[in-house]
Amino acid sequence: MTIAMIGTWRMAETGITPAMAELRAGGSAGDALVTAIKAVEDYPYYQSVGYGGLPNAAGVVETDAAYMDGDTFRLGAIAGARDIANPIAVAQALSQEPANNLLVGTGATEYASTHGFQLKNMLTERAGQKWEQKRQELASKNLNPYDGHDTVGMVALDAQSRMTVGTSTSGLFMKRTGRVGDSPLPGAGYYVDSTIGGAAATGMGEDLMKASLSYETVRLMGTGLSASEALRQAVYPFIDRLTKIGQHPREFSYVALRQDGDWGIATNVEFTFAVAQDDGATQIYIAQPNGDQPDIQPVTAEWLAADKARRQAPLA
Fold first, then answer.
1. Pfam family example for this protein (predicted)?
2. Lower Cβ count inside 10 Å, N or C end of the chain?
């Protein structure tokens, strides 16, 4: 029996640890995935996902999320949604609809409201303070406003060899109202096939959506490649191609999980991620870019303590 989960960024551990307990008890990959991503969405100190996510230029939190079932290829997604407490749960529900599987803006919120999902103001006091600080900085200095856009993306494998993938994000900090990145887009932000494996992306959505590299990674795993080798062949050549045509590629990071539990990552920036398999504890790793062979090391207790202190430090 093989069960496993992998997720983007340090924040994934918050959800993977309780979700793996569900999988060990015989739970499904779909339910475990939603449990995991909801835990990240609910934690107010993760500034790029769910409650506590940083708002758009108008000071409003708009969220994107997606869910895909690797057995049936059913998928659901929302984009530019407001006031939905757990976007991943709504995405999962939409995957069961015969049509209207991707809803945007007020349509997503209306669906959530009429189908019993919790609605709430997703802007925390802390996120509002950061928005005000950034707004004042932009008025007086020539700064890049887009400094927060980490998507949580996860792939889950259960004991029955079922696989799911999901994403959730509040998108770019200070983005234009209605801006949507790659996270709700199948093939680009995520893809899964239970007979092969799954992959999910995080980074600069405007670049990530230029190619369906999550799908391509799964396709390559289907030819027999390891997760790492599939990512190596899918991701880095495209980054090189963008460079050659003068597109100046920004952040590209991916996680992948095969149907046999083999996992891999690809990144062109410093990148943290979390992995759990079978009866093992959830391990958080940090990857440093190194061509197409990132250097991957477990994080230390000191690193974890510093990360927690930084996230929860009082704002100046």
1. Asparaginase_2
2. C
